[in-house]
Amino acid sequence: MSVWGGLFALLAAIYLAECAAWVRRNSVVFRALVRKGWQVLHPLEWTGNESGGLATAGPLPPLAPLIHCHLWPVSLSEEGVFAYAAQALRDVGRPRQTARFLKWEQVTEVRLQGKRVLVNGEPLIETGSPVFADRVAGVVEELSELPPERRGKAIRSALREAMDERAIRERMESFREQTLSLRFTCNLFFLVIFGLVPTMLLQPALLQRWPFFLAAVLALLAMVLLDYRRAHRALYPDAKGQRRAHFWMILFSPLAAIRARDVVARDLLANYSPLAVAHVICRPDSFRRFARERLADLRWPMLPVCESDDEDARRTEEAFRGVLLEESERFLRHAGLDPDALSAPPERDGNASAAYCPRCDAQYAVADASCEACGGLPVTRF
Ligand SMILES: [Zn+2]
Q1: Is it the case that residue 196 has pLDDT exceeding 90?
Q2: Model-level pTM greater than 0.90?
Q3: Element containing residue 377 per DSSP (H, E)
Q4: Distance CA 301, CA 88 (A)
Q5: Residue 343 Cα to ligand 1 middle (Å)
Q6: Residue 113's domain is classified under what CATH number?
């Protein structure tokens, strides 16, 4: 490989790294595929560890970004807040959690530190996004200040707000409008870097005109920066620090500039339930598949459901899981799906199959087996 070829390969490798994003175990990423529309994307298995894994945005035009959503990371009850949630994504599992429990009267200060929420100066949870951490901190603070009799209603209200389809639709519409120009400039930038550069390297006559190429790159970079700042300001008016940090990153890396729209997309729907987001942006069959997964996880959570020795904490987890299930079923009915029909047994893989796991649909030849992938959950006979 020539020196130029080697440099180009290095450029492509750095670019692919720019396309990758770390996804926590309790986060759900959506990516639009050309023929299938928006899909839930699972992190690449070989990149995973106990806290998460890598997922990649679309590397080729139209440069599909990733939208990150998050499962609710704490259990809330009228008694207190428990930094543990039993929810777990299929084939991913639960993240490590602090399992710290505080009664509401013990909560004196709620503070934000990047993606982390601190209560009384100690870490409560770490989330996949500063935007979502801010939302969780707000809910925890509000509940700690409310009289006990109003907390139950406030918890339901927070969950319903996260399932507000109209708000999700409006946010998606704003994203499309605000990033229309950014989308064009990012794609053009991609074509210049990965189309024009190799052409120049192969034709020495063109290589001599490098000042024109440099001028074009600088002009495009300026356009990306302007479009990025305008779109980010419109969609995240309060996130000045984040906007500034990414601005400098884009300024010094043309490869980061190609992915500038990803930065704007990432936290667009961070405060909304993945279930509600899937209903708004995915096609009906994809939504149905994801809804079945989420419902099964709430009805038959992975074992052990909760290992805490603290009775108050266990009660909070159980109560919150119940409220979350009720609200999710209410949402599904509103979306035109019958929760019981959605939880129907999977199609049987022939006579050799005697039972299935109600959580992950794996099928078993013996009826008294337990599903290891779901922590030893007893299977259900067909
Ligand atoms: Zn299972």
Answers
A1: no
A2: yes
A3: strand 377-378
A4: 8
A5: 14
A6: 2.30.29
